Amino acid sequence: MRKQLYQSIIAQLKLIQLDVQGKYITATTLDNAKSAIRTFDVWNNNIRYIADELPFALPAVFLQFQPIQWEQRSKGVRAADVGLTLHIITANRAPSSNKVGHETQALAFFDLLDAINANLYGLKSDFFRNLVSTSSATDHDHDELIDSQETYTVQLTDKSAVKVLPTVTATPVVSVGFNS
C-alpha cells in the first residue's frame, strides 16, 4: 500500500506547473515535461551527504513514511492513520535582506510550498481517505539547499493480505435405481 500511496501523491504533485508569469498552477492533465518539480523519490537523508550522492534536479520532493501502527481488521485487511513527511528541497536563491528585489526571490520557495498544499488538499483514493496537512517545518539552518518539511496524515486501508478463495462449482451426480 505504501507504494500505491507514494505513486498517488507523486502523480498529483506532477500536475504542478509554472505559468507564463512564473506562478504555480495545477494542470488538468499530466505532462512530465511541464512539471515544476523536477525530482521525486523516497527520503533517504538525501541532503546530509550531498557531496557523495548522485546529483538531483531542483526543486525536488522526497517522501518519508513515519512508523505505522497498523490495526488488524478481519479477513486480512488492516488500517492505520499514516504519517508522512514531504521534504521539499529548493535552492537558496538569494539572501532575504532588505535589498530591493531580493526578498521576492529569497522567499519564492514559500510559493511552491503553498502550491503543494493546495494541490494535495483532500486527495483520496479507493484505499486512502483525505490527505490532511498536520505540520510544516521551515528550514532555518540552510546553505545552498533549503529542506522544507510538510507533514500529512492519511487514513490508509491495506488489503494486500486478503486471500482470494477459489470458487468451486459442485456438479451433483444423482443416480436413481431400484434394487430388486
Top CATH class: Alpha Beta
The biggest sheet amounts to: 6 strands, mixed
Overall strand count: 8
Order of helical and strand elements: HEEEEEEHHEE
Outline: elongated
Rounded to an integer, what's the Rg over CA atoms? Answer: 24 Å
- Taking all residues together, what is the mean pLDDT? 88
Instruction: Work out the helix count.
Output: 3
Describe the protein.
The protein is an alpha+beta fold and 180 residues long. It has one domain: STM4215-like (2-Layer Sandwich), CATH 3.30.2000. Helix content is 16%, strand content 31%. It contains 3 helices and 8 strands; from the N terminus they run αββββββααββ. Strands 3, 4, 5, 6, 7 and 8 form a 6-stranded mixed β-sheet that branches. β1 (16-18) and β2 (24-26) form a beta hairpin. The longest helix has 12 residues, at 2-13. The radius of gyration is 24 Å and the shape is elongated. The model has no long low-confidence stretch (mean pLDDT 88).
Write the layout of secondary structure elements.
Layout: H1 2-13, E1 16-18, E2 24-26, E3 39-42, E4 60-65, E5 71-72, E6 78-91, H2 102-106, H3 109-120, E7 128-137, E8 145-158
Parallel strand pairs: 3-4
Antiparallel strand pairs: 1-2, 4-6, 5-6, 6-8, 7-8
